[in-house]
Amino acid sequence: MPARILVLDDETAIRALVARVLDEEGYEVVTAADGFAGLEAAKSTQFDLVITNNCMPGMSGSEVMDRLHVLFPTLPLLHLDDLSHPSSQDFPEGVRTLYKPFSLTTLRETVRKLLPG
Predict the structure, then answer these.
(1) How many C-beta atoms surround the C-beta of residue 63 within 10 A?
(2) Alpha carbon distance 112, 66 (integer Å)
(3) pLDDT tens profile 66-94
């Protein structure tokens, strides 16, 4: 069974690009446009990795990561950060960050490293 990945980003183009690349790698990808929808998806479906942007309206990616870390302490989290608006948030332990613009090769390699097994 392929790894299941949740991708959260309010930017449609980024969300679609990340989802397409991961889908091409054979992963099962679910997307959400905001933190609330992403958190609900994570509560109803078991994911192997969550990828989120921080700056989103409503519930930020850091809030989502904090809540996910409490609910699923071993769930790997990948944070996508915009260098023009770098985050100064304290994220849960073990959160990896990729800075936009990132290469698709770097995204693929980082995802492979974060997935269990």
Answers:
(1) 17
(2) 23
(3) 999 999 999 999 998 876 555 556 666 77
Whether cis (ω within 30° of 0) applies to the bond prior to 101 is yes
Q: Which residues, including other chains, have CB under 8 Å from residue 26's CB and lie 6 or more apart?
A: 2
Q: Residue by residue, what is the 3-state secondary structure of the chain? A: CCCEEEEECCCHHHHHHHHHHHHHCCCEEEEECCHHHHHHHHHHCCCCEEEEECCCCCCCHHHHHHHHHHHCCCCCEEEEEECCCCCCCCCCCCCEEEEECCCHHHHHHHHHHHCCC
CA dist 38 and 79 (Å) reads 14
Q: What pTM value is reported for the model? A: 0.91
Closest-CA residue to 32 (of 3, 58, 70): 58
CA proximity to 51, closest of 38, 36, 40, 69: 38
Q: Give per-residue pLDDT as tens, 49-61.
A: 999 988 888 888 8
